[in-house]
């Protein structure tokens, strides 16, 4: 009578072992060496997903390079840098794509990156002359809200209002860090008192962008920290014009996303070719509706329809890359102090 | 052997991270604040989860009603949900625009806020009350049917039942259940931060995260990870010391019949305990399901591949858990009780530290991408090990103490002993342990994010990627798929174990 049960425990075990062996086999099978040269690009997760720029970029570049473009997703921007630091000069990566202006100084310090050869007429709101990192897209941080919500037009007015906001933790999230720099740059020594004023507006602080945006869509808050380009996603991909970004008169903090070539690359020429391709029309016209950011060089056919509805801040704020570290540490201490009360 | 392997894996990865550390600083005031908050919220969460589980388990143990076994199976569900999905489900009930606040608004009452220490505890109870209930229910199950018969013949009232049967049983199962839940809550991060309402709710795990990505200070990450291990290790040792070892003796494995179900008051209490728990669990879950149904149509094809990958990983971890847990549980049951504490380290270790440590160890010898899935399966197995041990050690200890001498005198050992004596008696526990592992592994984001390339992404990772690119509806669809798959696996294993057995 008990025979069935004893067998089943064993069978479960055996089945599971079989599957594991199969899974391992599957993995080694994919590691077959390719004949064509391989250019390995480390990037963040959302770049490589089916709905991100990855698949289109890969197809377009492979059509002209006679190579295999291997895009590898490694978390987000900060995780990407940690990954490169861990791998060091032995890394398989030829290019790292997806660092932002807050990470450039730390990336340069590793000494793993080399100078690029790219020249382009960027359409960034700021001058770009970095010798090692090439920008490919950019955006402004902003609070996103329902289009018909009367929104305050600066942080002071927000602090005085009853509006509820969700933000991200600067210790674990890029937009969260962006907001920290934004307030610090706009208010300097008064940043701490601004945060104290905002404390009762902050419903909660989340680990990453997805959690915060999810809470906002569920109705937990009136506004969420995101990008000025977020409403374009809802408008273009979902034909939903109900979201808008709040324009702040202090100006908006910028995020510029860049790529760099690793000094230890075994495909330096292909890497140069990729960086030039990155600022070409073909790559740049993929960016707006897959990465939902502004292209670093506006393509000849212009921006996709719908982008003209977005707010365009009069003032662009950005902490220079080499000062980012110092500003960041001071601003974090103030933020923790003000919101922990 | 198996225990040494687990300990080596956890401590080895920790050491690997520590050795890679460059400069670094010790623990500052903000880290100490994080440690205090972590202990505080974990104590509250574990205490409440276990305390509330006691009446629920008691009611479930002595009542038979339609849907009972479905409810018991459902008790596994919150525990296996991806954190972010569960949080959104909870907020749909308790949040600012959730059901409760809408109802309060209707009644003209002021809004209640979920954000704060109470929110963190509420969410942790949601995750862990069901687990505690199952663990205590298992304790009831180990009381032989003959004891209840005797109690009925002697005319035991509620007080005698408590003193002679329930209290000793709880002394045996409650402290270790507390330790497991405490360990789980210590390593909480996203839940604590989101529902805690801000940086006040910084846990040690968040501080580890900060050390890694904000400062890239591997030394501090390793140090903080040690703090986590010490917290959980000491909780485990205290719990094991408190927990009585005495079993209830052998029975004839007859079906359990309960006579202590009479009385109007007791019926109302049991009913209330069961209904409240069911509502507390089912409301947020059903919101997840409804949201998911709307997103199912939007699932990208990539997701089905990810679901398949997740299934493989999950079955792989389940096999590994059985291989690791059985020897450790047998050793812990017969001689070395402290071995179970070693197993607990699995949940205490930060996935970020284990993942990075493994990366540092693997990188010089192999391409980490090639090993993404086996590594994920292994790490998931180590993390599920404490649950498996908790479930298995009790029943195995009974088997060893009740049948050990008889088996020894009959010269029964090795495979024959496993097959004839052990397996039939721990079948229920083994099924439950396998089910938990499979489901946990299915839903865990774990270390895959550090190793995955696009071909080996798991379902939870793809779900987060969907969320990260505005596709919240598709992500809810993915969450539902994940819930159905994990719950299906859990149910299949659990059911396989409980077939023709009393729970």
Condensed summary:
Chain A has 341 residues and is of the alpha/beta class.
Instruction: Provide the residue-averaged pLDDT of chain A.
Output: 87
| SS-based class of chain A | alpha/beta
Following the backbone from N to C, one meets helices and strands of chain B in this order, namely HHHHHHHHHHHHHHHHHHHHH
Q: Tell the overall outline of chain B.
A: globular
Are there runs of chain A of 5+ residues with pLDDT below 50, and where? 1-14, 25-34
Mean pLDDT of chain B: 81
Radius of gyration of chain B: 23 Å
Number of helices of chain B: 21
Radius of gyration of chain A from CA coordinates: 23 Å
Largest interface, C-beta closer than 8 angstroms, per-chain residues: A-B, 78 and 82 residues
Strands of chain A, count: 12
Could you estimate the helical fraction of the residues of chain B in percent? over 70%
Beginning-to-end CA distance, first to last residue of chain B: 32 Å
Low-pLDDT runs of 5+ residues of chain B are none
How many helical stretches of chain A?
14
Oligomer: heterodimer
Q: Proportion of β residues of chain A?
A: 15-25%
Structural class of chain B: mainly alpha
Please describe what this structure looks like:
Chain A is α/β, with parallel strands linked by helices. Chain A has 14 helices and 12 strands. In chain A, strands 1, 2, 3, 4, 5, 6, 7, 8, 9, 10, 11 and 12 form a 12-stranded mixed β-sheet that branches. In chain A, helix 7 packs across helix 14 and helix 8 runs parallel beside helix 14. The N terminus of chain A is likely disordered. With 503 residues, chain B is mainly α. The two termini of chain B are 32 Å apart. The model of chain B has no long low-confidence stretch (mean pLDDT 81). The interface between A and B is large, with 78 and 82 residues.
Task: Summarize the helices and strands and which ones pair or pack.
The complex is a heterodimer of chains A (341) and B (503).
Chain A: H1 3-30, E1 38-43, H2 45-48, H3 54-65, E2 68-73, H4 77-87, E3 95-100, H5 104-109, E4 113-114, E5 133-146, H6 155-160, E6 165-168, H7 174-187, H8 191-198, E7 202-206, H9 209-217, E8 223-227, H10 230-238, E9 243-246, E10 252-262, H11 268-278, H12 281-284, H13 287-290, E11 294-295, E12 316-317, H14 324-339
Parallel strand pairs in A: 1-2, 1-3, 6-7, 6-8, 10-12
Antiparallel strand pairs in A: 3-10, 4-10, 5-8, 5-9, 5-10, 5-11
Helix pairs in contact in A: 7-8, 7-14, 8-14
Chain B: H1 2-20, H2 29-62, H3 68-74, H4 77-80, H5 83-94, H6 99-106, H7 117-141, H8 145-153, H9 158-186, H10 190-196, H11 204-213, H12 218-242, H13 264-295, H14 302-334, H15 339-348, H16 351-362, H17 372-410, H18 414-443, H19 448-451, H20 459-468, H21 472-498
Helix pairs in contact in B: 1-12, 1-15, 1-16, 2-7, 2-9, 2-13, 5-13, 7-9, 7-10, 9-12, 9-15, 9-17, 11-12, 12-15, 13-21, 14-17, 14-18, 14-20, 15-17, 17-18, 18-21, 20-21
């Amino acid at each position: 009578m008990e025979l069935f049960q004893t067998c089943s425990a064993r069978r479960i075990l055996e089945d599971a072992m079989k599957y594991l062996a199969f899974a391992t086999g599957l993995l080694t099978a994919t590691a077959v060496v390719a004949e064509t040269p391989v250019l390995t690009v480390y990037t963040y997760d959302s770049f490589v997903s089916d709905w991100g720029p990855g698949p289109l970029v890969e197809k377009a570049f492979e059509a002209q390079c006679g190579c295999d473009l291997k895009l590898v997703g490694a978390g987000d921007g900060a995780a990407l840098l940690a990954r490169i630091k861990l791998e060091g000069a032995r890394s398989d990566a030829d290019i790292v794509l997806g660092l932002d202006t807050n990470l450039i100084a730390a990336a340069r310090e590793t000494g793993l990156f080399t100078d690029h050869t790219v020249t382009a007429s960027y359409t960034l709101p700021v001058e770009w002359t970095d010798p090692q990192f090439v920008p490919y897209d950019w955006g402004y941080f902003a609070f996103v809200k329902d289009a018909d919500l009367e929104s305050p037009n600066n942080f002071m007015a927000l602090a005085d209002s009853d509006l509820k906001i969700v933000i991200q933790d600067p210790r674990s999230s890029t937009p969260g860090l962006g907001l920290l720099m934004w307030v610090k740059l706009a208010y300097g020594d008064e940043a701490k008192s601004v945060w104290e004023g905002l404390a009762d507006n902050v419903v909660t602080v989340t680990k990453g962008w997805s959690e915060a945006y999810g809470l906002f869509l569920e109705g937990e808050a009136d506004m969420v920290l995101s990008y000025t380009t977020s409403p374009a996603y809802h408008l273009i991909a979902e034909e939903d014009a109900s979201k808008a970004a709040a324009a702040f008169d202090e100006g908006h903090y910028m995020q510029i996303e860049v790529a760099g070539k690793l000094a230890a690359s075994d495909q330096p020429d292909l890497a140069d070719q990729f960086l030039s391709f990155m600022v070409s029309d073909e790559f740049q016209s993929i960016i707006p509706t897959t990465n939902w950011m502004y292209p670093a060089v506006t393509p000849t056919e212009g921006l996709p329809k719908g982008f003209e509805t977005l707010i365009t801040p009069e003032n662009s704020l950005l902490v220079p890359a080499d000062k980012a570290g110092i500003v960041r540490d001071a601003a974090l201490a103030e933020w923790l102090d003000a919101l922990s009360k | 052997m198996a225990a040494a392997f687990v300990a080596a894996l956890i401590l080895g990865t920790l050491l690997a991270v520590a050795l890679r550390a460059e400069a670094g600083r010790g623990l500052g005031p903000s880290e100490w604040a994080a440690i205090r908050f972590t202990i505080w919220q974990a104590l509250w969460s574990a205490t409440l989860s276990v305390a509330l589980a006691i009446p629920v388990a008691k009611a479930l143990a002595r009542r038979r009603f339609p849907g009972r076994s479905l409810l018991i199976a459902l008790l596994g569900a919150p525990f296996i949900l991806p954190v972010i999905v569960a949080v959104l489900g909870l907020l749909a009930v308790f949040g600012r625009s959730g059901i409760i606040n809408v109802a309060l608004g209707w009644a003209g009452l002021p809004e209640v806020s979920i954000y704060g220490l109470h929110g963190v505890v509420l969410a942790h109870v949601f995750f862990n009350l069901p687990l505690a209930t199952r663990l205590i229910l298992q304790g009831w199950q180990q009381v032989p049917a003959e004891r209840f018969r005797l109690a009925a013949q002697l005319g035991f009232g509620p007080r005698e039942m408590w003193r002679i049967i329930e209290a000793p049983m709880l002394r045996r199962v409650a402290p270790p259940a507390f330790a497991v839940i405490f360990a789980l809550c210590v390593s909480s991060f996203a839940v604590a931060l989101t529902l805690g309402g801000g940086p006040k709710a910084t846990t040690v795990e968040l501080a580890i995260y900060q050390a890694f990505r904000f400062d890239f200070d591997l030394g501090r990450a390793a140090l903080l990870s040690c703090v986590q291990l010490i917290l959980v290790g000491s909780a485990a040792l205290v719990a094991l010391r408190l927990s009585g070892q005495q079993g209830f003796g052998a029975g004839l494995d007859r079906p359990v019949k309960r006579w202590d179900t009479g009385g109007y008051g007791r019926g109302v209490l049991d009913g209330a305990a069961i209904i409240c728990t069911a509502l507390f669990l089912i409301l947020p879950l059903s919101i997840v399901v409804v949201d998911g149904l709307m997103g199912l149509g939007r699932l990208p094809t990539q997701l089905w591949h990810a679901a398949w990958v997740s299934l493989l990983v999950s079955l792989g971890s389940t096999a590994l858990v059985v291989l690791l847990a059985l020897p450790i549980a047998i050793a812990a049951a017969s001689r070395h009780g402290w071995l179970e504490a070693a197993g607990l380290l699995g949940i205490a270790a930060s996935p970020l530290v284990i993942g990075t440590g493994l990366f540092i160890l693997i990188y010089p010898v192999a391409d980490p991408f090639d090993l993404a899935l086996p590594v994920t399966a292994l790490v998931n197995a180590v993390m599920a090990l404490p649950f498996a041990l908790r479930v298995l050690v009790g029943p195995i200890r009974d088997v060893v103490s009740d049948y050990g001498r008889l088996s020894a005198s009959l010269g029964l050992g090795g495979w024959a002993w496993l097959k004839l004596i052990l397996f039939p008696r721990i079948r229920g526990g083994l099924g439950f342990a396998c089910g938990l592992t499979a489901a946990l592994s299915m839903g865990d984001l774990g270390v895959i994010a550090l190793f995955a390339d696009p071909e080996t992404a798991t379902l939870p990772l793809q779900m987060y990627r969907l969320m990260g690119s505005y596709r919240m509806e598709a992500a809810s669809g993915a969450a539902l798929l994940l819930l159905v798959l994990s719950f299906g696996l859990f149910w299949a294993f659990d059911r396989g174990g409980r077939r023709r057995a009393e729970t």
